[in-house]
């Protein structure tokens, strides 16, 4: 019922406005074209400056209300991101000045040069000096921005330092899988057609010879650690992400670190950065006890796109080492050793996907 | 202004004239031939315009629906279930429907409204009228271009009603998502229909574009050299060239996609394992990025296909209503030429985060920021055109000024995004949404409104109501800024686009209130568009009658035709042109139409 009422009100408002508009047209016909034009010119000329002034005040108020919600006041959480922020400020100041100046000129001119029967229009078809100035000046300004931008761009896309921690990130509908190279610091080979979620091989690591696809087992896989959802990286230590996708295109979005890279099936990509603050420090810096570094998928990847969230836990080296020590290589998770003696103290119970049989075998071994 | 092309143009035109006059006497028009399968460029223009308006309402309504979800993610609206059925169970739009709405909104607005509706309408309407031709080079092709567009519209519309829903993978339709029905329900039949509709649309654009180019090059009236063309025609010319050169590339991209979808090829597919079916696909060796290159090779020129007509019309309207020549005519033409050339060389700036080769990326940064120079020239020239003018705030003029304002605001953020190092951070966030909606969406829409209000008297022989137009203008301008300005801040907080719900995100859920505010403004602005629609259709029948052939005191040729020109435009000879289109305020005269011969003691410029 209220629905119909609302619609009725809206239609009524429309009709009233329309009648007023219609009436004003009759009035203007009666008054004569020249006179009514002069009047509407005056009103609209005034509204133009009013819009300018209120608009600029609006810009200021909007900034006041929203600035603290952006990432700028908390600063970049990565060393590289500082460059992004400083470049952002330079660009903001440059474009901001142009914005304010041109908008003022536009609306002030509109107001000032509204029709006045006494004014003689200045016939001014072209002027080479002026045109040269506003070709050259923007060109110079843009050159400055290009130089700053490209210097940063080449730095961001350069080879990661040799000591960087390497993490392989794989996107899938709708979540993230992370792989650490393990003790040998080498990622084992994988093949997408042997991916087996139920068999605990979400990446298709080749850890056994495969007749069908003519694959040879890669022993480098045996110590690779695979985790889902949360990735651990070390404060002040460069981290390189090797990014893959299992199905459609995803994107590793790291707004806090000012980084982003697509995950493309079939074409691995990389990015690297150096985290500056641990998650704990970030909670203090932002004053938000719930703060976490979030990985957002930034490339439309299907109906669950909006929920494709990963977490980065930035920790100190000691915390990282402790965490790493607790992880079981995925090979052992998926292929629990039959011979208990071969595996000294693997904390297997942590992983819920383990088959109960394997679990009990383990318990026996410890006894 | 040069005169060289005069004799040249004359030959073609006079031949055409003779042919036409022959047929003029016994030209019976039935309802079908006049309103449906019309070959009159003016009627085809109106067909494009009105179809574009229908799509604009549908596309706008879609944005209202998905903005409801963004603004009120926790509320339910039972009436939504009444309208959308299973797509809004319990009164809340499902994720599937949300993405379908977003995708269709984008496709429809970019292609059907701002390409067909904008350049389709005004190329058809203005080219023959402003260059002095009886009709297009090929009226038949012209008619076909509309009907291909119409069929494309029907196919696109039909995809909304199928079981698995319309395509829902974003208007850019990146594979593998768009290639695999198992990856998303929208990529099933909905995507087939989407591709079919787009293929038909490309055909329509090519028929239209070739025709526009042929007409402008060959059918200018006597004296109308290229350098005397109004800027609208230059803009529409470059638009057509861009379309003809880039749409086929998009088409080839679609063909490969159709093969990947239906015939088991691997152009775009490699290394794919689908969790939904728990199977690995046999495809290997394809490149998903290849599609993006093909898509953006059209996709970027497309931005200028949308913008250039608006720029051209704004130039014309600003000059006419400032009663002052456009400043720097040759610089305006030159900058449009530069934009048209550069438009083909910047496409990869949409792909900075795809793992593009960094060196290649740096070239695209350079070329992208280079395109800001001609854009800046245009802005400064528009501003100088206003300087010491005598401005009449007709509704068209208001929208032209609004266009300049929006073009500045949206153009400047392009400098941020074109710089790859900054783009890494801002890519695919709300900053991008704000940028392209202001500069391409709303600005072009303003150009279109300026065009409609300005040429309406020529189209229908009546005026639209000014008061309604002013209300429409102010609500739309203020609303556009209120909607898109705050989105820059969401982008600076890293908020990704195309999210159905931000509730689970610690970093983005802080914008709930802002999103609600934006959604509210969206509804108001959408409602305000009905002032325009009502004004448009009401005025066709009941508007104040135009009593003079040249109501705006304009120089261009269309105002030398009868108030309601018939098929063939001029009743007698086509007038000869003696000067450029911008002699406003020269030697103390308010305006000197192009048809007036140059006087002996007239000043040179």
Automatic annotation (TrEMBL), chain B:
Gene3D superfamilies: Cytochrome c oxidase-like, subunit I domain. Pfam families: COX1 (PF00115). It is a multi-pass membrane protein. GO terms for molecular function: cytochrome-c oxidase activity; heme binding. The keyword 4Fe-4S does not apply. InterPro entries: Cyt_c_oxase-like_su1_dom (IPR023616), Cyt_c_oxase-like_su1_sf (IPR036927), Cyt_C_Oxase_1 (IPR000883), Cyt_c_Oxase_su1_BS (IPR023615). It is found in: Membrane. The keyword Glycoprotein does not apply. Keywords: Electron transport, Heme, Iron, Membrane, Metal-binding, Respiratory chain, Transmembrane, Transmembrane helix, Transport. One of its GO terms (biological process) is electron transport coupled proton transport. The chain crosses the membrane at residues 48-70, 108-131, 143-162, 193-219, 231-259, 294-314, 326-347, 359-384, 396-418, 430-456, 468-487, 517-538. GO terms for cellular component: membrane. Residues 31-578 form the Cytochrome oxidase subunit I profile domain. Belongs to the heme-copper respiratory oxidase family. This is Cytochrome-c oxidase. It comes from Filimonas zeae.
């Amino acid at each position: 019922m209220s629905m119909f009422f609302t619609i009725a009100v809206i239609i009524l408002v429309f009709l009233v406005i329309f009648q007023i508009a219609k009436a004003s047209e009759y009035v203007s016909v009666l008054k004569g074209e020249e006179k009514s034009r002069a009047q509407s010119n005056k009103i609209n000329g005034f509204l133009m400056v009013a819009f300018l002034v209120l608009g600029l005040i609006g810009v200021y108020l909007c900034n006041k209300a929203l600035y603290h919600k952006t990432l700028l006041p908390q600063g970049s959480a990565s060393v590289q991101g500082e460059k992004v922020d400083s470049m952002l400020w330079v660009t903001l100041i440059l474009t901001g000045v142009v914005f304010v100046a041109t908008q003022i000129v536009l609306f002030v001119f509109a107001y000032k040069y509204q029709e006045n029967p006494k004014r003689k229009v200045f016939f001014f078809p072209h002027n080479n000096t002026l045109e040269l100035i506003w070709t050259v000046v923007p060109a110079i300004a843009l050159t400055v921005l290009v130089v700053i931008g490209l210097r940063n761009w080449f730095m961001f896309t350069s080879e990661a330092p040799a000591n960087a921690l390497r993490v392989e990130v794989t996107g899938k509908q709708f979540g993230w899988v992370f792989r650490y190279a393990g003790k040998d610091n080498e990622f084992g080979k994988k093949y997408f057609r042997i991916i087996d979620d139920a068999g605990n091989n979400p990446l298709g690591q080749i850890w056994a010879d495969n007749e069908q696809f003519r694959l040879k087992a890669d022993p480098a896989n045996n110590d690779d650690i695979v985790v889902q959802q949360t990735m651990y990286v070390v404060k002040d230590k460069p981290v390189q992400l090797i990014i893959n996708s299992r199905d459609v295109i995803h994107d590793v979005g790291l707004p806090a670190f000012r980084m982003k890279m697509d995950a493309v099936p079939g074409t691995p990509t990389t990015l690297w950065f150096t985290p500056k603050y641990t998650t704990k420090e970030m909670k203090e810096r932002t004053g938000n006890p719930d703060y976490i570094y979030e990985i957002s998928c930034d490339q439309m990847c299907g109906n669950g796109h909006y929920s494709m969230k990963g977490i980065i836990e930035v920790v100190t080296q000691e915390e990282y080492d402790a965490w790493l020590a607790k992880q079981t290589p995925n090979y052992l998770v998926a292929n629990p050793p039959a011979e208990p003696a071969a595996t000294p103290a693997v904390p297997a119970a942590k992983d819920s996907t383990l088959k109960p049989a394997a679990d009990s075998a383990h318990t026996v071994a410890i006894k | 202004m040069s005169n060289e092309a005069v004799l040249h143009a004359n030959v073609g035109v006079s031949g055409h004239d003779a042919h036409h006059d022959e047929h003029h006497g016994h030209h019976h028009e039935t309802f079908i031939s006049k309103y449906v399968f019309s070959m009159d460029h003016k009627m085809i223009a109106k067909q494009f315009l009105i179809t574009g308006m229908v799509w604009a309402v549908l596309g706008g309504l879609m944005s209202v629906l998905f903005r409801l979800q963004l603004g009120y993610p926790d509320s339910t609206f039972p009436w939504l279930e009444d309208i959308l059925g299973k797509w809004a169970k319990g009164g809340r739009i499902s994720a599937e429907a949300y993405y379908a709405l977003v995708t269709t909104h984008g496709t429809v607005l970019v292609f059907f409204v701002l390409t067909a509706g904008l350049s389709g309408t005004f190329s058809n309407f203005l080219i023959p009228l402003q260059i002095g031709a009886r009709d297009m080079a090929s009226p038949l092709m012209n008619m076909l271009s509309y009907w291909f567009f119409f069929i494309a519209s029907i196919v696109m519309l039909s995809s909304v009603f199928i079981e698995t829903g319309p395509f829902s993978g974003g208007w850019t339709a990146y594979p593998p998502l768009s290639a695999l029905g198992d990856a998303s329900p929208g990529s099933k039949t909905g995507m087939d229909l989407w591709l079919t509709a787009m293929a038909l649309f490309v055909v329509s654009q090519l028929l239209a574009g070739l025709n526009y180019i042929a007409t402008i090059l060959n059918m200018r009236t006597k004296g109308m050299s290229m350098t005397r063309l109004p800027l609208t025609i230059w803009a529409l010319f470059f638009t057509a060239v861009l379309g003809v050169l880039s749409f086929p590339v998009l088409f080839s991209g679609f063909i490969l996609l159709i093969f990947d979808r239906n015939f088991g090829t691997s152009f775009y597919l490699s290394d794919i394992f689908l969790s939904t079916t728990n199977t690995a696909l046999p495809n290997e060796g394809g490149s998903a990025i290849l599609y993006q290159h093909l898509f953006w090779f059209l996709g970027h020129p497309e931005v200028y296909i949308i913008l250039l007509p608006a720029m051209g019309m704004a130039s014309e309207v600003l000059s006419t209503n400032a009663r002052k020549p456009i400043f720097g005519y040759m610089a305006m033409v030159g900058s449009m030429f530069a934009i048209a050339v550069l438009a083909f060389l910047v496409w990869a700036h949409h792909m900075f985060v795809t793992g593009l080769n960094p060196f290649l990326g740096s070239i695209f940064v350079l070329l992208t920021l280079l395109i800001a120079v001609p854009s800046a020239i245009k802005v400064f020239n528009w501003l100088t055109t206003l300087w010491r003018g005598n401005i009449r705030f007709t509704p068209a003029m208001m929208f032209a000024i609004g266009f300049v304002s929006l073009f500045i605001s949206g153009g400047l953020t392009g400098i941020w995004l074109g710089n790859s190092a900054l783009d890494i951070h801002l890519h695919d966030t709300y900053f991008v949404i704000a940028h392209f909606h202001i500069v391409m969406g709303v600005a072009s829409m303003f150009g279109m409104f300026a065009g409609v209000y300005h040429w309406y008297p020529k189209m229908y022989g009546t005026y639209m109501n000014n008061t309604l137009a002013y209300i429409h203008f102010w609500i739309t301008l203020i609303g556009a800024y209120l909607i898109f300005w705050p989105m820059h801040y969401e982008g600076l907080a890293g908020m990704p686009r195309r999210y159905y719900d931000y509730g689970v995100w610690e970093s983005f859920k802080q914008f709930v209130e802002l999103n609600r505010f934006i959604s509210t403004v969206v509804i108001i602005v959408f409602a305000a568009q009905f002032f325009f629609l009502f004004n448009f259709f009401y005025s066709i029948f009941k508007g104040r009658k135009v009593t003079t052939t040249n109501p705006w005191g304009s120089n261009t040729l269309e105002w030398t035709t009868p108030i309601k020109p018939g098929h063939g435009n001029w009743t007698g000879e086509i007038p000869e042109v003696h000067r450029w289109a911008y002699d406003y305020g020269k030697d103390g005269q308010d305006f000197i139409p192009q048809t007036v011969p140059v006087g002996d003691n007239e000043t040179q410029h």
